Amino acid sequence: MVEFSEEVALALCGQLALGHGLRKIEKMEGMPSKAAVFQWLMEGEAYKAAGENNHPKALFLDQYARAREVQSHIFILESHIQLSLEIGRFVAEFFIP
Q1: What angle do CA 22, 78, 93 make, to 5 degrees?
Q2: Distance, CA of 8 to CA of 30 (rounded, Å)
């Protein structure tokens, strides 16, 4: 089992921001299981609720949320790029002699 550390949390969030899901990340060497990540997030919530916003797990909660936000923006951009390419192929096939 991978223990929580700020380094592991940062690496995990970096992988999320790159678009990888937790199922893929947990298979990477040195990465925690999904269950461990969810446990860390719950503990982060508890520290925040207790007013300990600077606790490493409370900070991880914020980092995780930002990484997921970046991940969603990347997904949307990639979807728009793919749609644009498909529209371009359609236009080229049917409208350009």
Answers
A1: 140
A2: 8
d(CA 25, CA 43): 20
**Using one digit for the tens of pLDDT, what is the confidence trace for 34-80?**
999 999 999 999 999 999 999 999 999 999 999 999 988 787 777 77
pTM of the model: 0.77
State how far the alpha carbon of 47 is from the alpha carbons of 5, 14, 41, 68, in Å.
16, 23, 10, 20
3-state secondary structure the chain: CCCCCHHHHHHHHHHHHCCCCHHHHCCCCCCCCHHHHHHHHHHHHHHHHCCCCCCHHHHHHHHHHHHHHHHHHHHHHHHHHHHHHHHHHHHHHHHCC
